[in-house]
């Protein structure tokens, strides 16, 4: 079949991996007409990503998919921990997993990507607002001031479609990024690693942990992924080749000190070059990049896929505001402003972790020879993502920039406690917020007429937490002290009142940051 008449959609998603699938679902749930183009007809059946952040499960709550996805995650193991060891796997430092993080879900969740991706694929294809073209590869596209037209082809037919915006989730080798001639900004980490996934066939004594083994002979990582699977990553030493490392005997020899050869089945082995890079530009007119097409990270923090999912979560509330005429297209300039800094922080922290592993290994080697250089006697122990947070903040864009700090709440996700209302109903706090903006106060809200108009235009819900009992978790201290919080649809804190910022000024600041269309401002603004 040849489709010569362009079908017009609100947004086109190129690539239906986990990032593209989540984006398509979020756009569709926001009421947008979505076309998804994916070159493969089936989900890739081997594992790649293994960790899903609680923040991402939280983002699925408005779609009523959080509990379903959470059921696919590895249940919390009581003895699970993540951190650094020496060459003999003696624990050096790190932390233990917790049952519920600040997002209302376990912070780190092990999963099997084929299972999760298959579920997301099926859900996307069943959504009435999504038109899927599987087995089609994007051939070319033209972006104008008003639309993006695309030509795709399968083995036996051609397809022409158009969309107001196009989002490329087409991977690290993104043809879209290359077509736009967007370059990488290298963050200084290029190392070849062997990744080995196995299925355990017998009972075993492998630890339930994520271990960074700082062995001078070979730095490597062990990950207790979702049962019955396990993963190892081995850095290639100088002179070793991809072909040598992929030989079964080499792989078995590397695993011999971990598990007997008859206790597991090799599921996947591949040599990758771990990169640390961020695209110079994330947007060219009406075409945007997300996921690996926009940023690449070493896997030490388990943040590659999660960062890509944050990209589409960011766009999922901005695109509808622009397409519905509430905000001008200038709002989309905040996409790269917010996501670039955030991704850069995470990639840089992953690089630091890689360098820290090398540093600890070099220190052990030097100590064994009795020639420890002075600069190696002290080891930095940067924990987690830094500043005691699960994620770094956004530092620019739709946020009260002056309030962003390592200690404050602005720019970070609002914690989601488990609460109970006056009727005895127990639920996660986000269930009160709806899917849009929210003003949260510890008592009644008072605002002027202009603010009430803006609240109506932007669909800002007013939520009083004074009648709620917190069962687990907590709210920011400023909220407990009587300040009012303004929350974005992605649950990030836009800002809060303080001695210099009233409720009315806070709401007006949001309207300005969103690039509200002039006709939606109250008279006299």
What features would you describe in this structure?
The protein has helices at residues 18-29, 54-59, 66-70, 113-126, 175-179, 242-245, 248-255, 304-323, 333-369, 449-458, 477-480, 503-513; strands at residues 7-14, 34-38, 51-53, 81-85, 91-96, 108-110, 130-134, 137-143, 148-153, 158-168, 184-200, 209-213, 220-223, 229-235, 264-279, 283-284, 287-289, 295-296, 418-420, 426-428, 438-441, 461-464, 469-472, 485-487, 493-496. It is of the alpha+beta class. Among the domains are: 7-75 and 111-184 and 279-337, FAD/NAD(P)-binding domain; 401-520, Glutaredoxin, CATH 3.40.30. Strands 1, 2, 7, 8, 9, 10, 16 and 17 form an 8-stranded mixed beta sheet that branches. Strands 5-4-12-13-14-11-15-18 form an 8-stranded mixed beta sheet, with helices on both faces. A 4-stranded mixed beta sheet has the order 22-21-24-25, with helices on one face. Strand 8 and strand 9 (148-153) form a beta hairpin. Helix 10 packs across helix 12 (503-513). The protein starts with 6 loop residues before the first strand and ends in a 12-residue tail after the last helix. The model is unreliable at 1-5 and 376-388 (pLDDT under 50).
């Amino acid at each position: 079949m040849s489709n010569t008449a362009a079908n017009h959609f609100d947004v086109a998603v190129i690539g239906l991996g986990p990032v593209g699938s989540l984006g398509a679902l979020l756009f569709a749930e926001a009421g947008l007409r979505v076309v998804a183009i994916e070159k493969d007809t089936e989900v890739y059946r081997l594992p790649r990503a293994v960790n899903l952040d609680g923040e991402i499960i939280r983002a699925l709550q408005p779609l009523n998919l959080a509990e379903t996805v959470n059921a696919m995650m590895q249940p919390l193991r009581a003895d699970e921990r993540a951190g650094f060891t020496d060459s003999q796997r003696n624990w050096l430092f790190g932390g233990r997993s917790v049952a519920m993080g600040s997002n209302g879900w376990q912070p780190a969740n092990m999963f099997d990507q084929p299972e999760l991706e298959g579920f997301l694929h099926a859900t996307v294809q069943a959504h009435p607002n999504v038109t899927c073209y599987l087995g089609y590869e994007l051939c070319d596209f033209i972006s104008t001031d008003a639309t993006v037209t695309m030509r795709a082809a399968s083995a036996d037919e051609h397809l022409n479609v158009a969309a107001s915006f196009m989002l490329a989730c087409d991977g690290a080798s993104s043809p879209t990024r290359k077509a736009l001639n967007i370059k990488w900004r290298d963050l200084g980490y290029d190392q070849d690693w062997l990744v080995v996934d196995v299925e355990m066939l017998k009972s075993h004594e492998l630890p339930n942990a994520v271990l960074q083994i700082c062995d001078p002979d070979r730095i490597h990582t062990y990950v207790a992924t979702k049962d019955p699977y396990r993963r190892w990553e081995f850095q290639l030493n100088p002179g070793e080749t991809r072909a040598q490392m992929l030989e079964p005997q080499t792989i078995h020899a590397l695993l011999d000190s971990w598990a007997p050869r008859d206790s597991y089945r090799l599921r996947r082995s591949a040599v990758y070059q771990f990169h640390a890079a961020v695209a110079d530009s994330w947007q060219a007119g009406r075409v945007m990049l997300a996921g690996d097409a926009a940023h690449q990270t070493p896997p030490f923090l388990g943040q590659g896929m999660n960062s890509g999912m944050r990209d589409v979560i960011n766009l999922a509330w901005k695109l509808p505001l622009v397409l519905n005429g509430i905000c001008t297209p200038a709002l989309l300039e905040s996409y790269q402003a917010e996501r670039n800094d955030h991704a850069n922080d995470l990639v840089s922290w992953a690089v630091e972790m890689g360098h820290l592993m090398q540093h600890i290994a070099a220190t052990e080697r030097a100590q064994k020879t009795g020639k420890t250089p002075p600069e190696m006697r002290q080891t930095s122990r940067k924990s987690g993502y830094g500043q005691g947070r699960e994620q770094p903040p956004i530092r620019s864009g739709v946020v009260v920039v002056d309030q962003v700090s390592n200690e404050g709440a602005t720019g970070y996700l609002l914690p989601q406690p488990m609460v109970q209302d006056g009727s005895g109903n127990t639920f996660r706090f986000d269930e009160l917020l709806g899917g849009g903006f929210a003003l949260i106060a510890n008592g009644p809200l008072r605002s002027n007429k202009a603010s009430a108009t803006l609240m109506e235009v932007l669909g800002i819900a007013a939520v009083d937490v004074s009648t709620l009992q917190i069962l687990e978790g907590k709210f920011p201290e400023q909220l407990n002290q009587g300040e009012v919080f303004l929350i974005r649809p992605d649950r990030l804190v836009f800002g809060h009142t303080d001695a210099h910022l009233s409720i009315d000024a806070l709401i007006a600041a949001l309207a300005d940051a969103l690039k509200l269309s002039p006709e939606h401002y109250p008279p006299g603004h």
